[in-house]
Amino acid sequence: MANYEPLTSRFGARVTDVDLSRSLDDETFVGLRNAFAEYSVLYFPDQPLTDEQQIAFSRRLGPLEATKVGSYGAGTPLVILSNIGEDGKVVPDDHRLNMVHKANGLWHSDSSFKPVPALASFLTAKTVPPEGGETEYASMVVAWDDLPKKTKAKIDGKVALHHFATSRNRIDPDMVTDAENDELPPVRQFMVRDIPETGKRALYVGSHTGAIEGIQDKEARTLIDELVDFSTHSDKVYTHKWRENDAVLWDNRAVIHRGRPFARHKHPRVMIRTTVAGDGPTA
Ligand code: OGA
Ligand code: MN
Predict the structure, then answer these.
(1) CB-facing half-sphere around the CA of 137: CA atoms within 13 A
(2) How is residue 105 annotated by DSSP?
(3) In the chain, what is the greatest distance between 2 CA atoms, to the nearest angstrom?
(4) Fewer CB atoms near the end CB (10 Å): N or C, the chain?
């Protein structure tokens, strides 16, 4: 039986005594699926997985997203986060591959810019830098619980617009390609989500969120920034310091995350993500 130890007092667990390279028996899998909803972030140390094994494990959680146009791995179930160029060397800091990592440095929920946003992401570490490059997670279930009543009343039932270009424009206004713009128009998402398995609710805002229906643009922008700040106070955050062959599975309904900087021009960092699709639009 898999063993679960809490990572923080309010969310996250470290999972041992389980081998994700093999097909899990039903009881172990159901336990893991329940723990996923309960803890929001599951960290599995020492899981050297081939891409096929990573895909097989993730698929058991649901159909996988195909990687969007413009990303490394486009059209496949793998998102490859790497700063190694075609010549096998680390690319310069301003290279597109590094820009992707910079954009991932803004707090976000994966694929919230898609009409059906992601349920889960599963990220495995292949090569990690000696320093920096951590991934941080903030629980939006905890954030929702802790929000003042007045703020809750203001946003409950509200719909926000999530747009891929909103987050990318914050890094570099020239970053989004025409193909990305065409494929990824703004989508509507509820600002508070229900997590049916636990009956809990979670705040749903991040770097792709740019506007709120019924609230004037400037006020909405301020409110979005305040909500993200509130949600990501250090007491609500788990920082994952990667080791090679670590795997982390997270619930995009329940956490936002960001990648931390590292010496991108100097050290290779290679991570592979599979993304489990959600089961419908939120709004
Ligand atoms: C991701 C992501 C951050 C990182 O894989 O979805 O945002 O630390 N990664 O690489
Ligand atoms: Mn991400």
Answers:
(1) 28
(2) T
(3) 55
(4) N
The string of pLDDT tens digits covering residues 81-105 is: 999 999 999 999 889 898 889 999 9
Task: Tell me the one-letter amino acid at 162.
Answer: H
Angle in degrees, 0-180, between the axes of helices 164-171 and 96-103, rounded to the nearest 10:
110
Residue 135 alpha carbon, nearest atom of ligand 1:
8
Please give the number of the atom of ligand 1 that sits closest to the Cα of 101: 10
**Is the pLDDT score of 69 beyond 90?**
no
Q: Quick one: which of 90, 272, 98, 269 has its CA closest to 175?
A: 98
Positive or negative torsion for Cα 209, 214, 216, 220: negative
Q: How far is CA 279 from the centre of its chain?
A: 17
Ligand having the closest approach to the CA of 112: 2
If you take atom 7 of ligand 1, which residue's CA is the nearest one? 104
Name the 3-class secondary structure at 204: coil
Q: How far is CA 243 from CA 74, 122, 127, 128, 177, in A?
A: 26, 15, 8, 7, 33
**Cα 218–chain centre separation:** 26
Residue nearest to atom 8 of ligand 1 (CA): 259
116-130, 166-180, 198-212, 246-260: segment of lowest average pLDDT: 166-180
pLDDT tens, residue by residue, 204-262: 999 999 999 999 999 999 999 999 999 999 989 999 999 999 999 999 999 999 999 99
Cα separation of 95 and 48, whole Å? Answer: 29
213 CA → ligand 2 middle, Å? 25
Ligand 1 atom closest to Cα of 104?
7
Residue 24: CB partners within 8 Å, gap ≥ 6? 18, 32, 57, 60
pLDDT: which is higher, 175 or 144: 144
Q: What is the pTM of this model?
A: 0.97
- Per-residue pLDDT averaged across 173-198, rounded? 95
